[in-house]
Amino acid sequence: MTADAAPIGEIVEVHGPVAVIRCPQLPPLRRAVYTRLDGDTCIFEVHRHISPNELQAVTLHSTQGLWRGMQVYDSGSPLHVPVAESCLGRLLNIFGEPLDGGPVIETDQYRNIHHSPAPLNELTAQGDLLPTGIKVVDLLCPFFRGGKAGLFGGAGVGKTVLIMEFMHAIAHLHQGVSVFSGIGERIREAHELWRDMQDAGVMDRALLVFGQMDESPGVRFRVSLSALAYAEYFRDSLRRDVLLVMDNVFRFVQAGAEVSSLLGRMPATVGYQPTLGSEVAELEDRITSSLHGAITSVQAVYVPADDMTDPAVTTILSHLDTSVILSRTQAAKGLYPAVDPLLSGSKALDRHTLGAAHYTVAEAVRGHLARYKELEDIIAMLGVEELSAEDQLVVARARKLQRYLTQPFAVTAAHTGMTGASVELKQTISDCDGILAGRYDDVSEDQFYMRGGLEGLTS
Fold first, then answer.
1. Any long-range contacts for 430-439 (C-beta under 8 Å, 24+ apart)?
2. What pLDDT score was predicted for residue 428?
3. Residue 202 binned pLDDT confidence (cut-offs 50, 70, 90)
4. b/e 393-413 (16+ beta carbons within 10 angstroms → b)
5. In what order do the strands lie in the sheet with 295-301?
6. What is the DSSP letter of 61?
7. H helices of 15-158, where?
8. Coil, strand or helix: which one is 184?
């Protein structure tokens, strides 16, 4: 964005975050154009050509102070961000500018937030299991290297804590890096997350990119692509495995709906934008693994009115491999992480992919927990003593499994005073197999609560 560039047109209308710009020659869609206001640069993104010499552009800054007749300049490219290894440990906005009070990113490398996915001949298939050290996730809804996982849950069920523990696991177990995309985050939440990650020792291998709730819908709509550009840089240039965390993808859809309405498009199903499918696909299809490294994605998804058939939710779900459902019922029982073991799952949860031992134990654990859930009403009315001896044994072991699948986290150790525990998948399978086989029938169920493995556990 040079100071001596020739203007390409002028602003003729401003409607909230949307400006109509008249140009003799229209720049292409998604091109970043800008104007200058009191020494500051106001950037727009071209979204629609409405006539041979007029276009609609969505601002990425405030439109306060703009007036008709202001000259507009062409940046010559889509929005791009500065990239360098020194971005790790930083808190940036959609433009790659620091939000943490630190120095500006010094680099001569930039990466466009819009570009095509990696060529097919460079892509690699989904990799091996990606252990997280979290027992309930590794056993019942495992992640895969290069896969996409959805984290479904409302406020207050531990979604952010679970995301931080994933990032901690990637940094300490796999020596990878994490990129966090805060889409429409509240300023308070962003600040708390940043401080918590510093306290947990995760920030050195992480980059946080925020488009905050009070910013233009254009920023909230594009901040995920900005974070993805950084993830692709770490994968392609530094050849590192990357965990891309997006919180929250539903806000990306909401921002797209706002932009669509501002551009004058008629809404489609349940009021969502007619381009919902293509917008989600454009984002998801770029989350790929190549010969240089893998991008594994964990995406928090808000479910409106707990309706899993909502068009936005179903569109996002169609791109995911693993679904982790956080349950308020589990949280109310004090079972953290509050993962619902019966609703959560993975497309790759089969004997061929996981191996016979893992698959058999996982299915048996689900079977015990499902049977216990069926019997809960009877137990509440008549008591567990009225059950058959076989059902009493199933209930006792299911309650121990419920408590065994709880776990103290490393990222919350400073708040809870409990040392975080990371459990290898092999140990988790062995422990669950022992509970199912009755090797711990004489151990009281409270000894299974909030611990790592069962080594040395006696009655």
1. 431/404, 432/139, 432/361, 432/364, 432/365, 432/401, 432/404, 433/357, 433/361, 435/397, 435/400, 435/401, 435/404, 436/361, 436/364, 436/365, 436/368, 436/397, 436/401, 438/393, 438/397
2. 96
3. confident
4. ebbbbbbbbbbbbbbbbbbbe
5. 91-92, 206-212, 177-185, 242-247, 295-301, 148-152, 322-325, 345-346
6. S
7. 135-140
8. strand
Percent of the chain with pLDDT over 70: 98
Task: Compute the Cα dihedral for 357, 358, 362, 363 and give only its sign.
Answer: negative
233 closest CA partner among 371, 59, 115: 115
pTM: 0.88
Whether residue 3 is predicted with pLDDT greater than 70 in this model: the reply is no
Residues 6+ apart with CB under 8 A from 88: 177, 204, 205, 206, 207
User: Is residue 102 predicted with pLDDT exceeding 70?
Assistant: yes
Can you tell me the distance from the alpha carbon of 401 to that of 300, in angstroms, rounded to the nearest whole number?
Answer: 26
- Tell me the residue type at 434: G
**Half-sphere exposure of residue 36, counting CA atoms within 13 Å on the CB side?**
12
pLDDT of res. 52? 94
- At 239-283, the pLDDT tens digits run 888 999 998 899 999 999 999 999 999 988 888 999 999 999 999
Best CA proximity match to 189, nearest among 230, 152, 219, 159: 159
The two tokens of residue 284 are 């998801």
Which are the catalytic amino acids? 159, 185-186
Amino acid (one-letter) located at 110? Y
Extract the tokens encoding 154. Answer: 């409302």
Q: Residue 174 pLDDT more than 80?
A: no
- Tokens 């199912």 locate to 436
- Distance between CA atoms of 366 and 353, rounded to whole angstroms? 18
For CA atoms 439, 443, 446, 448, give the dihedral sign: negative
Contact criterion met (CB below 8 Å) for 81 and 113: yes
Long-range contacts of 266-275 (CB under 8 A, 24+ apart): 269/311, 270/310, 270/311, 272/311, 272/312
What phi-psi label fits residue 130: left (phi over 0), alpha (psi between -120 and 50 degrees) or beta? beta
Contact 40, 100 (CB under 8 A): no
> Does residue 166 contact residue 132 with C-beta atoms inside 8 Å?
yes
DSSP state letters, 149-178: EEEE--TTSSHHHHHHHHHHHHHHHS--EE
- Amino acid in position 47: H
Confidence band of 2 (pLDDT split at 50, 70, 90)? low
* Close Cβ partners of 310 (under 8 Å, ≥ 6 residues apart): 270, 303, 304
| Whole-number average pLDDT of the chain | 90
